[in-house]
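quick q for whoever's on today - can somebody do inverse folding on this one?? i tried earlier but teh output was garbage lol. tokens:
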């Protein structure tokens, strides 16, 4: 089993209502899990937001906590509801109303990874699914809610930046011949998960860094944005999807030669986003 449900880095001083989180960058693949899968160690990583945690781990320097998953996405998807159980991969689960995520094999216990490749040889017992949810899903979400509650208490507002990456191929069908390919897709569930002023400021921080940004297409936000996004209660969620081609060797699932340069670029973005919910001055983003 993965060693930890989550990893949390606290800032020395909490100075912003912004929380950064990465639910899909876990890469602790225990041998017991690999023994149950049809996939190679490289194939099973294809749905992972590989090294997104390394891109955002600078956030505590700017007064914001950073939460990242311990368990990998192929093992348990933290951006799904805990009851999004797939009867095609879990025993004794009743088929419920149509859910497109479950139908595509991407429930809380995923059936497939990228390109529809099956993870398991057969079905998992329901007890296994429940154990994963109780051991990894609930602690991660309990901590995420705690961090947002702390923001509300200290700053009167909470802003969650939900950090993800997207396969380059995922953008192929979303780009028309007369539009520039986006570097970043911001998801706010078409305004339901965050107030426009917050989304505007996040978009401006990214554009200031020279990144091409679009909203909600093809990724508007999934469970985390839907569940935690409550702008009427001053709790905002913005999902950030980064084109993996900017920093990752997708074939080998390793940082590309551009990784450090892109991370340096993001440092200024993270500093600017942190300032959105800041009550004081932060350190300079870069020399």
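ok took a stab at it. sequence:
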């Amino acid at each position: 089993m993965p060693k930890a449900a989550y990893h949390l880095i606290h800032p020395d001083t909490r100075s912003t209502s912004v929380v950064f989180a990465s639910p899909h960058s876990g890469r602790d693949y225990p041998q017991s899990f690999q023994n149950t899968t049809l996939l190679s160690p490289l194939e099973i990583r294809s749905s992972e937001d590989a090294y997104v945690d390394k891109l955002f781990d600078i956030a505590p320097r700017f007064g914001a906590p950073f939460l990242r998953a311990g368990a990998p996405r192929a093992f348990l998807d933290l951006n799904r509801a805990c009851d999004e159980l797939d009867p095609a991969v879990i025993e004794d689960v009743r088929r419920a109303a149509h859910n497109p995520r479950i139908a595509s094999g991407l429930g809380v216990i995923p059936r497939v990874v990228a390109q529809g490749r099956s993870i398991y040889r057969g079905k998992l017992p329901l007890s296994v699914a429940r154990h994963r949810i109780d051991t990894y899903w609930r602690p991660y979400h309990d901590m995420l809610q705690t961090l947002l509650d702390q923001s509300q208490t200290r700053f009167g507002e909470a802003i969650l930046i939900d950090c993800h990456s997207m396969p380059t191929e995922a953008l192929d069908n979303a780009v028309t011949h007369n539009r520039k390919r986006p570097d970043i897709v911001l998801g706010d569930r078409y305004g339901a998960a965050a107030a426009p002023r917050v989304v505007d400021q996040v978009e401006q921080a990214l554009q200031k860094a020279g990144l091409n940004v679009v909203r909600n297409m093809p990724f508007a936000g999934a469970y985390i944005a839907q569940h935690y996004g409550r702008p009427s209660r001053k709790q905002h969620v913005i999902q950030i999807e980064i084109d993996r081609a900017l920093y990752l060797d997708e074939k080998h699932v390793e940082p590309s030669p551009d990784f450090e340069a892109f991370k340096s670029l993001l440092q200024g973005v993270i500093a600017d986003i942190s300032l959105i919910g800041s009550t004081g001055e932060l350190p300079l983003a870069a020399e």
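fwiw The CA atoms of residues 174 and 218 lie 6 Å apart. also The chain has seven helices and nine strands. so keep that in mind when u check it
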